[in-house]
Amino acid sequence: MSQSDTPLSSDNGALLRTDEMTPAERYQLLTSLIIPRPIAWISSRSASGHRNLAPFSYFAVLSPSPMLIGVSISERGAGLKDSAANILETGVFCVNIAAERHITAMNTTAGDHPPEVDEFEVAGLTAVEGDLVDVPYVAGCPAVLECRLFRQVDLAPAQTSFLIGEVVAVHLSPELAFTSGTMLVDPESLTPVARLGGNLYSLLGEIREVARPVV
Ligand SMILES: Cc1cc2nc3c(=O)[nH]c(=O)nc-3n(C[C@H](O)[C@H](O)[C@H](O)COP(=O)(O)O)c2cc1C
């Protein structure tokens, strides 16, 4: 590691200064400490009509009303990744929620393909046209969020753009179960996949219910 040989001490044993770490070390530490991360499997279409699909785990819920989600897409070399370029060109995209059965296909779509390559075809997936946005989505996912670009936040000097999407429609598969009388999805029926550090993924483990304190 590039940090000094004698790390500053802390209650937890070592204190690393992030400005003394290499970019690779910062990436490895951040993405293996902040886990499990949900995955936005983003489908989009270029202005010239090419379909695109790729996974992103710098992905967060931002607000329910309006329904906002955010995804951070880094640059590839000196240019934008296809997903970011398409979203900025067209202003629309879909977030496909991958189920356990999609792990291999989802990972396949992370390949560094040129913009004209259709990752739906590469991964053997069927595309369905969105209802409110002019974007294809992955057939057979437990849920799909149709989104319009709400805001782009430039994170310079990080070579990353934070794209905020407003969810304008949600597709729900009949396989999903809900807590009676609510819109709370039963997690066991969703079988979500989450990203850990490196090439590791996790599925749902033990689920515990913990009531909020009443003050
Ligand atoms: C599970 C997973 C999560 C990923 N998360 C991100 C991410 O949050 N941000 C990012 O820029 N790239 C992420 N990547 C890498 C992109 O998927 C990869 O660069 C892909 O080729 C981008 O495709 P595109 O050029 O078609 O947009 C991730 C890859 C995997 C496998």
Please characterize this protein's 3D structure.
The chain has 215 residues and is an alpha+beta fold. The chain has one domain: Roll (Pnp Oxidase, Chain A), CATH 2.30.110. The chain is built from five helices and twelve strands. The strands form three sheets. Strands 3-2-6-9-10-5-4 form a seven-stranded antiparallel sheet, covered by helices on one side. The longest helix has 11 residues, at 23-33. The mean pLDDT is 95. The structure holds flavin mononucleotide. Flavin mononucleotide binds next to strand 3, strand 5 and helix 2. Flavin mononucleotide is lined by residues 39, 52, 54-58, 72-74, 81-83, 107, 110, 112, 195.
Task: Name the descriptors.
215 residues, Pnp Oxidase, Chain A, seven-stranded antiparallel beta sheet, three-stranded antiparallel beta sheet, 5 helices, 12 strands, binds flavin mononucleotide
Précis, in short:
The chain has helices spanning 23-33, 82-90, 103-108, 119-122, 187-190, and strands at 37-38, 40-45, 51-56, 59-63, 68-74, 92-97, 127-129, 136-138, 143-154, 160-172, 194-195, 201-202. The chain is of the alpha+beta class and 215 residues long.
SS content category = alpha+beta
Enumerate the spans where pLDDT stays under 50 for 5 or more consecutive residues.
none
Number of strands: 12
Number of domains: 1
